[in-house]
From TrEMBL:
NAD as UniProt keyword: yes
InterPro entries named among the record's database cross-references: Aminoacid_DH-like_N_sf (IPR046346), Glu/Leu/Phe/Val/Trp_DH (IPR006095), Glu/Leu/Phe/Val/Trp_DH_C (IPR006096), Glu/Leu/Phe/Val/Trp_DH_dimer (IPR006097), Glu/Leu/Phe/Val_DH_AS (IPR033524), Glu/Phe/Leu/Val/Trp_DH_bac/arc (IPR016211), NAD(P)-bd_dom_sf (IPR036291)
Domain Glutamate/phenylalanine/leucine/valine/L-tryptophan dehydrogenase C-terminal: 146-359
UniProt entry keywords in alphabetical sequence: NAD, Oxidoreductase
Signal sequence, start to end: none
Organism: Nocardioides plantarum
Protein name: Glu/Leu/Phe/Val dehydrogenase
Pfam families reported in the protein's UniProt record: ELFV_dehydrog, ELFV_dehydrog_N
Enzyme Commission number: 1.4.1.-
Tree of life domain: Bacteria
Length: 363
């Protein structure tokens, strides 16, 4: 990003983008609030060693926009926001940094509610919450919902059932994934739980991850799971379903070209590498379950914490991701558009029709 870049052009859809800097702790963070039309913006904090501030800004803008659409499609009275902390969490993360970050989020007066994301955990949110009232995803011991990856994975599984039924038809016993080969790229917090659901459903599961201990743990828990050395090897293998569960932009032109899977359904955010990939998937007859439609379980889980957390209630709400996915795929078929376009239309309709008359959320 050059000095003459117009930041208003970069975040032209966004209500607010705020930078935080605390040299004493090493905190460098960006919060992006995309929309508060439906309520305060809720979204996790990603702690990642971005190559540049420009990369971090591009990521937080993309992610916060996705959160607005995710909340709208999930039927929540919440807007979309996201935060990124720039740096390697393995070396930079500390109680002091997290508490400094908490004071920064507190200064936004409730327009942004934070939670966990890549590189942050419920225990981290406990530290943030010592300085901030606008935190979800805390540990159960501190009155929170705990690890949101549990219901994120469950929601992806429910969405995958709907997408598989769209591809192969319903089965009398609901076992549409039984005997199907599912490739899971990324078996960290969410992917690991997803593998458990797939194994229980009778699927043949193949996994990969850049961190070998994550693969080893999954294979220890589920000895029937196979592993390959790379994502490239996974997408080139014979699959029925491909589940991208790592970082974004997993669906490139090259991946779509070699992919044998009939269904793509995973937990990663912003899976489409660029506009047009959704059409390439549709042209190849691949059923794509839009990422922000199926991975909303974690958002549903931490949002439930705002009411006084009940896991059973949150899980029941996450179960409806199956119905939402079917509605998206049905609209895509009736309108003759890719599922990603159909999901956008449904989310935008709700933001437009239900959005608060005052336009932005004021705490």
């Amino acid at each position: 990003m050059s000095l003459d870049t117009d930041v208003f052009d970069l975040g032209s859809e966004h209500e607010q983008v705020v930078f935080a800097n605390d040299p004493a702790t090493g905190l460098r963070a960006i919060v992006a609030i995309h929309s508060t039309a439906l309520g305060p913006a809720l979204g996790g904090t990603r702690f990642h060693p971005y190559a540049s501030t420009s990369d971090a800004l591009a990521d937080v803008l993309d992610l916060s926009r996705g959160m607005s659409y995710k909340a709208a499609l999930a039927g929540l009275d919440l807007g979309g926001g996201k935060a990124v902390i720039i740096g390697d969490p393995a070396t930079l993360k500390s109680e002091a940094l997290l508490r400094a970050y908490g004071r920064f989020v507190q200064s936004l007066s409730g327009r942004y509610l934070t939670a966990c994301d890549v590189g942050t955990y419920s225990e981290d949110m406990d530290h943030v919450a010592r300085e901030c009232a606008y935190v979800t995803g805390r540990t159960v011991a501190h009155g929170g919902a705990g690890d949101s990856s549990v219901l994120t994975a469950y929601g992806v599984f429910r969405g995958m059932l709907a997408a598989a039924e769209s591809a192969w038809g319903r089965t009398a016993d609901g076992g549409v994934l039984e005997g199907r080969t599912v490739g899971v790229a990324g078996v960290g917090k969410v992917g690991r739980h997803l593998v458990g659901h797939l194994v229980e459903a009778g699927a043949r599961v193949v996994v990969t991850d850049v961190w070998q201990p994550a693969v080893d743990r999954v294979r220890d828990e589920h000895p029937s799971v196979l592993a390959v050395d790379s994502t490239e090897a996974l997408v080139a293998s014979a699959l029925d379903v491909y589940a991208p569960c790592a970082l974004g932009h997993a669906l490139t032109d090259e991946v779509v070209e070699v992919l044998s899977a009939r269904v793509v359904c995973g937990a990663a955010n912003n899976q489409l590498a660029h506009p047009g990939v959704e059409k390439a998937l549709a042209d190849r007859g691949i059923v794509y379950a839009p990422d922000y439609c199926v991975n909303a379980g974690g958002l549903i889980q931490v949002a439930d914490e705002l009411e006084g957390f009940s896991f059973d209630r949150a899980q029941q709400r996450a179960t409806t991701i199956y119905d939402t996915t079917r509605a998206v795929l049905d609209l895509a078929a009736s309108d003759g558009v890719p599922p990603a376009t159909a999901a956008d239309r449904l989310a935008e309709r709700r933001m437009r029709e239900v959005g608060r008359l005052r336009g932005i959320w004021l705490a």
